[in-house]
């Protein structure tokens, strides 16, 4: 193509993201766009096509963003190139959303016609506005009997402040409104700008590892052009590579001769060193390269840390490699080596939330065939010592001795809870119980309010959302952001099994809850830890003071002893099950501790009897 043709082509590109509160229908809208543009033949179509991970399909959620190119013939007769970036809705994956927004020029904001504006609807709008994106509101699920599209239209205008007079009324499920949406993408979202002839500047916003092609980068070309044979340079890491292939996903990879300003696509360059190719870096050409990199991303601070240990100590290096590969695909993952007396060598790993932690653990087990022991997650505490220094503690067992500590501070969040009036009392009770400090309450409309609280991160991150959902029959939505550290009266509880302190079971809690939590954990551990042929005392202690105790009675365990049928199949199955159970178990001194025991410290008893 000559320059004029490239310019004409650029005017026909639309790069956009689809954002929404969880479950409002982003992935279904993407499916409909792929269908309506014949990107995927109907016989190959399946629901949530862009959720390519098994894990995403099983859980019905989007974890990873995905970028695809589709071609659309508009009412003006011209063909447009859309790059659609599907993004996750869960608060734990907002980092994925912000990265994809940096690559787009516009965003489609999907709002459920029955639910209206929810906490993450607002959060995502702010992210889109931070990235200067044009926002196109769409009201989905108008087929639902409870749909109130006009009320939601007014809510989008009042609560968010967006003009929603032209918002498409859609049902992604029934395919209603999709033609209007496609036209609005053409007429209302801007074409990319960017110098077609200037030095190459491309933002890496995602990457994956391919055993044959090396690291594959997903990029947004801001200026210039990149093609096979080019020698490229990563402007932050300084690494240089020869491009072997460029292309787009549509939704399967299609090779291209080049990618040019305005395009979203992939680049492969036989990159073997994972550390050279971090998302957020800028690539340029070695010859006539750009002088300054693009802004990149703010590094993300993990919310919780937990220890990851291979059940089999010999797999330590393999676990490190697996974490490095996952980090490519998940820039918010952080890890550092650590050792535990109880668990051996592992990694202290940072996550954006519990769902993120769950997903990483499951991906490590599935994609890398690892058996892992995970310790209970902890937030990062600041321990101010009498000698005037401060230590950051993300592993409770490393909290300095009580005598050395002047005071401890813990992270607080500013939380917004959107909820129908009828449940405000229940929400406030819960927030109060979780040591919340009330800030304000705004009315969203006659029936719904936005309640705002300061809450300790440690209280909100573990089970708060589940309890919130169950006490409000699923009507509440929650979003939060960090709001700094505050002093709290915190203590560390150690757990002793058979008289030995197990460092991986220590946890930090507010003094008011210490007695109760100590009692709960000793009972819980008594049920979880397999009996041995001797008695095992389970104790909870603050310093040298024992605050709770239970006893695991002596017993010789043989799961097959009760089977008299002599059915060898059944016996083999049971033994096999028992063996697999063992894989997720660690021997600590003379006691076998199963995976669940490490998570038991999170139980506060607050959700008991609620489900
Ligand atoms: N009735 C109705 N249901 C819909 C419509 N669009 C989506 N759904 C359903 O709503 C649920 C959530 O849809 P998804 O497309 O997975 O929502 P999402 O926003 O992508 O969810 P996450 O990716 O997990 O954030 C699914 O069960 C869909 O079948 C619609 O127009 N009408």
TrEMBL record:
Its EC number is 3.6.5.n1. Transmembrane segments: none annotated. It catalyses: GTP + H2O = GDP + phosphate + H(+). InterPro entries: EF-4, EFG_III/V, EFG_V-like, EFTu-like_2, G_TR_CS, LepA_C_sf, LepA_CTD, LepA_IV. The keyword Hydrolase applies. GO terms for molecular function: GTP binding; GTPase activity; ribosome binding; translation elongation factor activity. One of its GO terms (cellular component) is plasma membrane. Its main location: membrane. This is Elongation factor 4.
